[in-house]
C-alpha cells in the first residue's frame, strides 16, 4: 500500500476556475490610443522660449526655474510665492502642446506646485489678505 505524505496546511488549494475562463481584455478607445502613442513620458517638455524649433528642456529644471522666479517676486511671503508660482506654472502650461503637459504637471507636483485653477483660486484668498495688510502697513 502506497501513501502520500501531503501536509494539508501547506498544500496549495485547488482552483475552482476553469481553463479559458479569463476576463476579456477591454479594448481602448481611439482617443486613449492616441494619448498613449503621443504622450511625452520622458520628463522633457517643449522649450517655448528657445529660438530653436523643437528644442526641449527637462521639466524638473523648468519648474525649478519657475519656482526661483516666483521666490524672487515674493520676498519672504509664502502666500505671494504660492500664488506667483501657480500663476507662472499655469501660464507656461497653457503655452505647451497637450502631449507635453503631463510631464510638466508631474514635475510641478513633485516640487509642490499644484497646476490648476482651483489651486490658484485657493491661494488667492490668503494672497489678497496679505496684500491688504502690507498696503495698510505702508500707509
From TrEMBL:
Basic and acidic residues bias: start-end ranges: 15-25
Keywords: Plasmid
Disordered: region residues: 1-25
Superkingdom of the source species: Bacteria
Protein name listed in UniProt: Uncharacterized protein
Amino acid at each position: 500500500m502506497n501513501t502520500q505524505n501531503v501536509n494539508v496546511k501547506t498544500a496549495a488549494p485547488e482552483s475552482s476556475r476553469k481553463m479559458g475562463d479569463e476576463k476579456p481584455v477591454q479594448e481602448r478607445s481611439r482617443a486613449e490610443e492616441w494619448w498613449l502613442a503621443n504622450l511625452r513620458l520622458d520628463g522633457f517638455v517643449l522649450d517655448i522660449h528657445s529660438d530653436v524649433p523643437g528644442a526641449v528642456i527637462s521639466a524638473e529644471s523648468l519648474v525649478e526655474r519657475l519656482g526661483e522666479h516666483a521666490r524672487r517676486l515674493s520676498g519672504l511671503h509664502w502666500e505671494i510665492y504660492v500664488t506667483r508660482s501657480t500663476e507662472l506654472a499655469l501660464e507656461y502650461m497653457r503655452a505647451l502642446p497637450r502631449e507635453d503637459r503631463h510631464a510638466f504637471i508631474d514635475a510641478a507636483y513633485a516640487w509642490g506646485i499644484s497646476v490648476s485653477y482651483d489651486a490658484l483660486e485657493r491661494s488667492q484668498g490668503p494672497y489678497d489678505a496679505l496684500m491688504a495688510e502690507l498696503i495698510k502697513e505702508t500707509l
